[in-house]
Each structure stands twice: as structure tokens, then as C-alpha cells.
Design brief:
The protein is α/β, with parallel strands linked by helices. The chain has helices at residues 11-23, 107-120, 144-156, 171-177, 191-197, 214-226, 254-261, 270-274, 277-289, 316-332; strands at residues 2-5, 27-32, 37-42, 59-63, 83-85, 88-90, 96-100, 124-126, 160-164, 180-183, 204-207, 232-236, 266-268, 294-298. It binds phosphoenolpyruvate (PEP) and manganese (II) ion (MN).
């Protein structure tokens, strides 16, 4: 349920109701907006049967939430969440651009790609160090060595790092070297992992499972928020359909649909979303035109030799063109890169 406090409510009144809710066994989450303070209370509402919260001092209204997700919903927080890492912002009016290779293959290629993508305006360097590969015999990533290269290259070019975590046993290393933790499509419903992420103080980008509905996607994000970590980004990366011309079907209508339900930023990944180099530019443009809060694009200096996802990687020259176009589109829809 959501408890909306009156504009005139005092800190003591807020503390009092939070204390009472906790006494009744509720987990409480406070959202202080520009106008209103809202308490999200999660617990068994039957325990409140004879204790009308609306009669507590400072309370304006009590709204039961019937949706299965609460903290991620716009009922809990109306203003868009802006993730701000060292002044680099994603969400609200800010379009975040994440670019880099599918996998970190070696130090040299990563530095080359970071140099070109940062010059074009990308502020977040992506690259897999622990790779979720369909075949156990395919390249699995450089592990901690890859994380170190990511940190060094990002620091050299003034970028942030995003990389995927598959296993909480890698958490310490990943926290040490990266700014945003990516949870891949294959782990979107790994609930133990999601709960673990709720306890950390770093942003998490959750990728949509390839067979997940938007509701399931939002509920996965709810797991992270319920643990107390509200810095969550949602990434549409294509879903499985009967179509075989593309690797996945990029669900661009998910952008406005998700945004109508949640305050969290929505990122679009046209690379995994289509699996085709010729689709990256049009789909990146379309994503920003549709109101996405960011894009994630795979860029490789030599896609033919890439150790993973070469078919969907674009070269730095094409990334330059993409950035020019996307910047114009962002401005057209009232946002900035
Ligand atoms: C990736 O971004 O490197 C990746 C593996 O993506 P996904 O989890 O969407 O397949
Ligand atoms: Mn990839």
C-alpha cells in the first residue's frame, strides 16, 4: 500500500507512522518528491484491519496497490528516476549512451574502441568480462583481467563502466571495477541474484528476459528495489518471436508501455535486439524517438574477427554517424545526450 503524507506533515509524524508500520511487520520505503512524501509499505495488510492508517496525524490518503509491483510503479514515485554517477546522468531529460564490444578480448582493442566511442560522445563503456555463452566451448570472457582493462580504458577516456554479472561470487571484483552492474536477459528471473543486488549501493541495469512479459520484467526490478536499491535501469533487448530474419524482435512499444508504468529509466539495446548490423542505426534512432532514456550499442574495431557478436557490431565510423543522428533526435524529443 502507499501512504501519501500531507504537505504540512512534520518529520515526527513521518517517523511515527514509519515506526508503527515497522511494528506491524511492514517493510517501509520512503520517497520524498518535490511536493509530496510517500511511504511504500510492504507487508500483510490484514494485520491492519482494526488500525486505520488514514487516521494517523499527517496522513493525507492511503492507497492500496493492486498491481504486483509497487516500488517501481509511478504510484510510488511520479518523477522520473535519474541515475547520476559522477555527474553522468541517465533518465529524465538525459539520454545515456553505452557503447563498446560484446566481449573484452584484449587491452588494445578495448582502448581503441573506448577512444573512438568516447570521442563520438558515449559516456559509458560496455564490455563483457564474464560472458553468458550458449555453448560451454565458446569464449567465456577474460574474467577479472577484463574488468581491469575496462576500468583502465574508461578512466583514460572519462567514461563509466557497465559490465555483466552472472554469479554473486564475482560481486566483490565487479563492485571494485565497475560503475553499473548489468544483469543479462538469461538471469532476469534469477531471484536470488536479484535479491543480492538489492543490498548494494550501485546502479543495476536489468535486461529483459527473452521470453519475459513487461509485467514479469517490472517484477524482476521490484525484487532489486524491495531490497532497498532503487538505482535500477530497465533494458529492452528484444524478445523471442516466430520471426527468424532477426535474432530477436526488438519490442520498441515496450518503451512507452514501461514508461507509463514506472519511474525507472528505460534503455534500448538494438544490437542484441536485432542481431543485425544493418538494423542498429535505424533502431537506435527509433528508440530515442520513442522516448528511450538510453541506448546500448555493440561497437567493434574489427567485427569480422570479433570473438562474440561480430554480426551485430558496428565499426567506430558508423558509430559516429549514429551519434550524430541520435543527438538530433534526442533534441527533437526534448532530451539531451
Ligand atoms: C550483453 O549485453 O552482452 C548480453 C549478453 O546481452 P543479453 O543478456 O541481452 O543477451
Ligand atoms: Mn553481445
Amino acid at each position: 500500500m502507499i501512504i501519501v503524507m500531507k504537505n504540512s506533515a512534520t518529520e515526527q509524524e513521518l517517523d511515527h507512522i514509519v515506526e508503527k508500520l515497522q511494528e506491524f511487520g511492514f517493510a517501509t520505503h520512503i520517497s520524498k518528491g518535490t511536493e509530496k512524501t510517500i511511504i511504500g509499505a510492504i507487508g500483510d495488510e490484514r494485520t491492519l484491519r482494526d488500525r486505520p492508517l488514514s487516521s494517523f496525524p499527517g496522513v493525507e490518503t492511503v492507497v492500496p496497490i493492486v498491481k504486483p509491483f509497487k516500488l517501481v510503479s509511478k504510484d510510488f514515485k511520479q518523477e522520473p528516476t535519474v541515475i547520476d554517477i559522477n555527474g553522468i546522468k541517465i533518465g529524465g531529460d538525459n539520454v545515456g549512451v553505452m557503447a563498446g564490444p560484446c566481449s573484452v578480448e584484449n587491452r588494445d582493442m578495448l582502448f581503441k574502441i573506448a577512444e573512438r566511442t568516447s570521442k563520438a560522445g558515449a559516456k559509458i563503456l560496455r564490455g563483457g568480462a564474464f560472458k553468458p555463452r550458449t555453448s560451454p566451448y565458446a569464449f567465456q570472457g577474460l574474467g577479472v583481467e577484463g574488468l581491469k582493462y575496462l576500468r583502465e580504458a574508461a578512466d583514460e577516456y572519462g567514461m563509466l563502466v557497465i559490465t555483466e554479472m552472472m554469479d554473486p561470487r564475482d560481486m566483490d571484483d565487479i563492485l571494485k571495477y565497475t560503475d553499473i552492474i548489468q544483469i543479462g536477459a538469461r538471469n532476469m528471473q534469477n531471484f536470488r541474484l536479484l535479491r543480492e543486488l538489492g543490498t548494494i549501493d550501485k546502479p543495476v541495469m536489468l535486461k529483459r528476459g527473452m521470453c519475459a512479459t513487461i509485467k514479469e520484467f517490472l517484477m524482476a526490478a521490484e525484487y532489486v528495489c524491495a531490497g532497498g536499491n532503487y538505482q535500477v535501469l530497465l533494458c529492452e533487448r528484444g524478445i523471442r518471436t516466430y520471426e527468424t530474419e532477426t535474432r530477436n524482435t526488438l519490442d520498441l512499444s515496450a518503451v512507452p508501455v514501461i514508461q507509463s508504468n514506472t519511474h525507472l529509466p528505460v534503455i534500448v539495446d538494438p544490437s542484441h535486439g536485432t542481431g543485425r548490423r544493418d538494423c542498429i542505426l535505424p533502431m537506435a534512432q527509433a528508440a530515442v524517438a520513442a522516448g528511450a532514456d538510453g541506448i546500448m550499442v555493440e561497437v567493434h574495431n574489427n567485427p569480422e574477427e570479433a570473438m562474440s557478436d561480430g554480426d551485430q557490431s558496428i565499426v567506430p565510423d558508423d558509430f559516429d554517424v549514429l551519434m550524430k543522428r541520435v543527438r538530433i533526435i534526442a533534441e527533437t524529443v526534448g532530451k539531451q545526450l
